[in-house]
Amino acid sequence: MVLLWRAPDNGGAPGTWVEVNRNYHSGDGPISSSFSDTPASAGSYWYGTHVYDNAGNFMIHPTNIMRTVRSIEVTLNRPPDAITSGQEISLTWSISGGARISHTDVHLDYDLVRLKSANALNSTVNQCSTPCSGPREFTSFLIAPAAGNWHLAAHAIVDSVERWSTVYAVTISSRSQFPDLVVGSLGISAGEAPAGSTVTITFSISNSGNASAPASLARIRIADATIITTADPLLLTVRVDGLAVSGSQSFSRTITVPTGHLSGAYYIGVTANEDATIMESDRSNNQLTLPFNVKAAPFSGDFQYPINGASWSINQDFEWNPTWGNGGAYHLAEDAVAAPGTAVVASADGVVRFAATDVAGFGGLILIEHNLGGEAVTTLYGHLSKRRSLLVQPGQAVRKGALIAYVADDDEDGGPWHPHLHFGVRKGAFSTSPICGHWPNVGYSQSCSGMTHDQYRQFWYRPTTFIVAHAGGLPPPISLKQPDLIVEAVAFNP
């Protein structure tokens, strides 16, 4: 057993010793033991240890150690005597001493027990989320809640010890006058624009309440619904000056349409007092939205082969195969000979629409939508490696030549065929609408009531013909067709 003893300093020598902690140990040793101690008051103290064995023998540690304990106090400046509901309360507090402050804030609650807990109804933002050192003074604010009798105290964790200031009783009186911020006159310079481009937003914020409003923040966001929340992408934050009753402020701001947004229908909106730092008589008129269409990103101008630049060795062509299905089918892509781990790149600028592994018949599969002179085209990359990870995700904008994946190994490419890249070019935008009961982005043609294989094939381009026509002068590919055909996936329904 090891005992820790403490004595106050008495002119450079220990005063009266008292036991403050003990640790129990078993076995023959050697052993190590550690202690912690928090004296009730500041000052200099001596520490020593006693060690007892099982027979009752003991030894006093030959060296006593003196340590100085610093005084650590949390002091909250007295709050104003007259506070009304909705008022911004400015708070100042200080921490004296302490080497490491890991948390400090001010709590406000009508329940004294809950006040000194993590569940306090109101608290300021932690001023030391990244640990800071004391002594130090802090300033923050709280918005006064509903009328009633409340309690206020500053809180801190200093050198791993929780500490509190004096608790103040605060009376908050009711308030009959409030500001009311209203967003109006919202306009957008264009009803649609491609991702990455800029548009101008104009709007006004007025105060229709019966009390003046302090300065606040308004935020512009883009969303896929008419009601915008703080979870929607932020486009811009705007500072709104303090507004007198019936006062108004007009704004004109340029915003950039996020490059990661897919083409489609959205809403752009402005929200006043989004942080709710001002207590208003009506929060239902703080937001206004307008519909906005995001167009596909501008096309860079050309396509490339997704492996080895212009070098393209075809094993299975875009052709009719009489051995597939019930009487044959068209292979709707070109299979490029490629060793496992070969880099696969985006054929052109675009937006990733689908990216998944373990897709039946394909293993890893990526589809990218492109804008070709105002017309949509979708490229398909199949038999990609899960083991090496897909390097893009749905919604991500990619540039021509960007690395997106690697060719799969034999055991992860979706079927009993040699490693290769299945590359297809489909007309139109990415779609999950079924054709003949199948997802349209498949490897071979289907026939069903009202549609023949030839009609089905019209949804696709022959990749080599397409790339040569849109490759900005790249030479035609090298075709090294092998005698043993690679059998593609029969079908899949994701």
Description:
The protein is mainly beta. Helices cover 3% and strands 42% of the residues. It has 3 helices and 34 strands. It has helices spanning 112-115, 453-457, 463-469; strands spanning 2-8, 18-23, 43-52, 58-60, 65-69, 73-76, 83-84, 88-96, 101-109, 122-123, 136-143, 148-158, 161-164, 168-173, 181-188, 192-194, 198-207, 216-223, 234-240, 248-256, 264-272, 287-295, 314-316, 320-321, 329-330, 334-337, 343-345, 350-359, 363-372, 375-384, 397-398, 403-406, 420-427, 460-461. Strands 23, 26, 28, 29, 30, 31, 33 and 34 form an 8-stranded antiparallel sheet that branches. Strands 7, 9, 10, 12, 13 and 14 form a 6-stranded mixed sheet that branches. A hairpin with a 7-residue loop joins β24 and β25.
Rg over CA atoms: 36 Å
Number of helical elements: 3
Question: Oligomeric form of this entry?
Answer: single chain
**Residue-averaged pLDDT, rounded?**
82
Assign a percent range to the helix content: under 10%
Largest sheet: 8 strands, antiparallel
The percentage of residues in β strands lies in 35-45%
Shape: flat
Distance between the termini: 67 Å
- The counted number of beta strands is 34
Structural class: mainly beta
Unreliable parts: 473-494
